[in-house]
Amino acid sequence: MAGQDFDVPDAQADGSGDIPVIQANPTSAPGRLTLNLGIVDVPYANPKKPKKKGKKGKGKKTNRAKEEGSTVTKTTAEVAEILEAKYGVMDTFAFARLPDIAAKLEDSIAGQLETMMMGGHASGNPFASAESAIETMFRDFLFKQQIESFGIAGVPTAAALRGVNHRLKHPYAKGNPRRPSFIDTGLYMAHFKAWFS
User: Fold this and answer.
1) Separation between Cα atoms, residue 11 and residue 106, nearest integer Å
2) Of 23, 160, 188, 197, which one is least surrounded by beta carbons within 10 A?
3) Quick check: is 9 in a domain?
4) Cα–Cα dist 139/134, whole Å
5) Considering the domain boundaries, does residue 13 fall inside one?
6) What is the pLDDT of residues 16-41, one digit of tens each?
């Protein structure tokens, strides 16, 4: 697996939030095209625990803040940095799918040229269709469990093998089916972004 360099600028994605960037080629020279992979930074929901009902005046006093659930939560950006440091998820994707990424980039630029040659107006971003295709490829890479075939230590993850799934009513139930690695709530996969700079 290739080495990992992290560059986390304060870039905005349509006002949705900060996007931590994991660059596929972080040391590229000026004028070179760079593929940036990142996550739109949104908080994970922290489910509230139901309040316990008790009889008036009886029983122990409880800490109401603990009963109602903690407001401290991780964000998709924090999770992405943890996953990248431990497993190199985006790094593995970029190097494994480099030929497909290059083909999508060629198609995107060719489409823009064809539009201009037919008298149409080029879009403000000639790489838009490639960026969208790369995002779809990443989601497929995780959902179809392709990442699990690269021999990364700890992949498939123990949580995936146990079927831990926070999209279900009982996320830790023993009967939950095995799920793909890195798709627990689905936020990490859904908020993945790819763009060229």
Assistant:
1) 26
2) 197
3) no
4) 9
5) no
6) 456 666 555 556 567 789 999 999 99
